[in-house]
Amino acid sequence: MTTSLSVADTSADTSRISISAHYTGYVWYKHGLSASAFVTPMGRLANALLTPVNALLKGLAGAHIDTFLLQRHQVLDHLLTELIEQEGVEQIVELAAGLSPRGYRISERYPHVTYIETDLPGMAARKAALLQQLQRPDRHRVQACNILQQDGPESLQAVLGSLDKQRKTVVISEGLVNYFPLPVIREVWSRLARELHEFPTGTYLTDLYPDFADHPSYRYVKFAQKLVGFFTRGEWPLHYPSDAAIQAGFGQDGFSKTEVHDPAAYYERLNLPRARSATLVRLIRART
Ligand SMILES: C[S@@+](CC[C@H](N)C(=O)[O-])C[C@H]1O[C@@H](n2cnc3c(N)ncnc32)[C@H](O)[C@@H]1O
Hints:
This protein is an alpha/beta fold. It has a single domain (15-287), classed as 3-Layer(aba) Sandwich (Rossmann fold), CATH 3.40.50. Helices cover 44% and strands 14% of the residues. The protein has ten helices and seven strands. It has a seven-stranded mixed beta sheet with strand order 3-2-1-4-5-7-6, with helices on both faces. Strand 4 (169-173), helix 7 and strand 5 form a beta-alpha-beta unit. It is globular, with a radius of gyration of 18 Å. The relative contact order is 0.16. S-adenosylmethionine binds at residues 14, 17-18, 20-21, 24-25, 95-98, 100, 119-120, 123, 145-148, 174-176.
């Protein structure tokens, strides 16, 4: 069964996507970015199933799914760290945090930072139990949030409304936006931009997989797109044909300054795994 969302589907159940968090959670662990507590049996199984596919993609296209996962995760960490260290950000909300260890790492490293992890209720409950087991302080906690909800206790508005409006704030998402058709996620971005305007500075960080149709590995991208869609029983659309189109889109959605980062620019500095040809993922830092 495949599922297609429209902008009006604000109560659509997208929990089928949550399985992908088990896979990425295992990838972060496998590459030394996380701890065993964040690993699930489903994550191990998905990794075992995809290992031969990844090997094939690496041979054919010079990069596999994990190459871009690791690039996006580490560049996002870098962009977030810059905001904390150089711009005084003190509040962070992670959307669709899944089994990511970022909240743990960042809140350990910066004791003055409040870090709220959010996800759909099922995944949020799982993460909350994990954080309790790890005895996290109250400033590192979990709240349920469905990005499609326009209002109510699980809306973006409610999560951001619970924060201190005097503190510089970042909202971050990873591995989320390509699960939604562009008009659907743009409606979310517009709401988010409006909410972020209420803070002294409001910044949104996200990864995004663009539709680079002239990329030498485009047919492998289309294959990976089908694979992700198969596992999550839905679509995984690519967004925007160029960096300039990304910038223009975020401008129309209410962000006043948008940077588009190519992981290739960070290969040396962050010691990232490299793709043989041009990279396929972009990291966006959009300010209101
Ligand atoms: C690929 S995982 C990414 C997890 C984590 N950010 C990472 O990179 O490891 C996608 C996440 O999106 C969450 N998700 C799906 N639909 C959502 C929605 N409508 N609102 C918020 N989160 C959602 C899933 O539960 C899942 O944790």
